[in-house]
Amino acid sequence: MQFLSKYSLKKYHTFGTDVYTKYFTEINSVAQFKNLLQEDIYKNNSLLILGGGSNLLFTKNYDGLVIKNNLHGVDVVKQDENHVWVKAAAGENWHQFVLWCVNHNYGGIENLSLIPGCVGASPMQNIGAYGVEIKDVCDTVNAIDVQTGEEITFTNANCKFGYRESIFKHIYKNKYLITSVVFKLNKKPVFNTSYGAIEQELKTMGVTQPSVKAISDAVINIRSSKLPDPAKIGNAGSFFKNPEVSKQKHDELKQQHPNLVAYALDNGNYKLAAGWLIEQCGFKGKRFGDAGVHVNQALVLVNYGTANGSEIYNLSQQILDAVNNAYGVTLEREVNIY
Ligand code: FAD
Ligand code: NAP
Q1: How many CB atoms lie within 10 A of CB 6?
Q2: What domains sit in the chain, N to C, each tagged with a CATH number?
Q3: 30-82: pLDDT as tens digits
Q4: What's the mean pLDDT in 16-39?
Q5: How far apart are CA 51 and CA 336, in angstroms?
Q6: Ligand lying closest to the C-alpha of residue 299
Q7: Which of 9, 142, 225, 333 has the largest CB neighbor count within 10 A?
Q8: Residue 160 neighbours by CB under 8 Å, 6+ apart
Q9: How many alpha carbons fall within 13 Å on the CB side of residue 247?
Q10: Distance from C-alpha of 89 to C-alpha of 79, rounded to nearest angstrom
């Protein structure tokens, strides 16, 4: 097994900050990962499993072993008249996997087009966009216990999915290597076009009959026009989650701020648009050295070039404090901090 020492992670994460890891290795098969368990460097260091690095921020050099997951393969494992079960290995690029499903006209994840990262991280925070989440299509998650090497399969219910949440982001963080995910997709797709700007974009595209491909294209168009491309400007997507507040808190805020952007949830609470709160606090488009808040989307913190992780983290703290002071709402970071 080859371990690289004091290895730069700059090209392995989308914030693009210049950080080093004490040790770095890559795995190309489950067998290779199991062999790794016997190595002293593995046993004596903290572990970080890396996919596309698009949902993390390093505030300092990583004092442990980073394992880049390169497990590949996409297979249909089962099908019936209405559904198809597709197993995708954890190291597959998420968007390429979505396009594979779109090209086969398998419905269910077209609204999740153009999300960066790998399949293996998709259950971690139950990735979501435009009204669809992984929990809607995830059948099972296959994983390996990083201590014992034991293989385990999590059902959808075992994953304890929530809003940008799962069991893997909390009590099982760094305890399991996710090796593959099985998705249950529709051969007779039901379309979800009511969210955000999808319907408008379909109209602009001249689409009268939605299809898996048309929705994917619409989402790609919207996202490309709004969100910063990490290849051009460092970022990890939304830095904060949209906070959930009680109806009482929502009503108080709405009275004081009639323009408040909020969505009623099934449980009676309200989801507030964190981007709106941050914008109202004057942060949208603001730049502090090379750390900043994106001009089009206040939820996205960016690295204009040479910002380091602690500068970005400190900016996130300033935003948290400002929103708390102005609205009495505590934002929670969505990005994994290391
Ligand atoms: P990484 O950043 O590599 O890892 C994230 C976490 O998962 C880390 O803690 C890591 O240790 C762990 N992990 C990764 N792989 C494994 C594995 N195989 N086993 C166990 N643990 C693992 N997210 C959304 O939900 N919706 C969006 O619409 C969205 N849009 C985005 C847009 C942009 C421009 C960017 C930059 C990010 C966006 N994100 C979005 C966030 C991010 O792309 C997703 O969370 C994505 O799933 C992260 O995948 P990754 O492979 O890059 O994970
Ligand atoms: P948007 O469409 O401008 O919407 C702004 C916010 O309002 C979003 O956060 C969204 O919540 C919420 N929203 C919009 N329509 C809604 C509806 N009909 N019902 C309930 N909530 C609604 O957002 P955007 O920035 O362009 O992003 C579009 C989608 O991509 C969103 O779903 C967003 O979550 C996702 N995205 C996620 C990331 C990330 O890193 N996590 C980054 C970029 C985009 P939700 O966020 O809960 O959907």
Answers
A1: 10
A2: 4-69 (3.30.43.10), 74-226 (3.30.465.10), 234-337 (3.90.78.10)
A3: 999 999 999 999 999 999 999 999 999 999 999 999 999 999 999 999 999 99
A4: 97
A5: 13
A6: 2
A7: 9
A8: 166, 167
A9: 5
A10: 18
- Check residue 228 and report its DSSP letter: P
Q: Is residue 239 within 6 Å of ligand 2 at its C-beta?
A: no
Which of 313-321's residues contact partners 24+ apart within 8 Å by CB, and which partners?
313/57, 313/59, 313/337, 315/288, 315/291, 316/239, 316/240, 319/240, 319/278, 319/281, 319/283, 319/293, 320/240
Band of the pLDDT at 195, cuts 50, 70, 90?
Answer: confident
Prediction pTM value? 0.97
Distance CA 276, CA 299 (A): 8
**Residue 108, SS3 per DSSP:** coil
Cβ of residue 25 lying under 6 Å from some atom of ligand 2 = no
Active site residues per annotation: 164, 238, 334
For every residue of 308-335, DSSP letters joined together read -HHHHHHHHHHHHHHHHHHHS----B-S
Strand pairing report for 56-57 and 47-50: unpaired
Taking the C-alpha atoms of residue 21 and residue 9, their distance in angstroms, rounded to an integer, is: 7
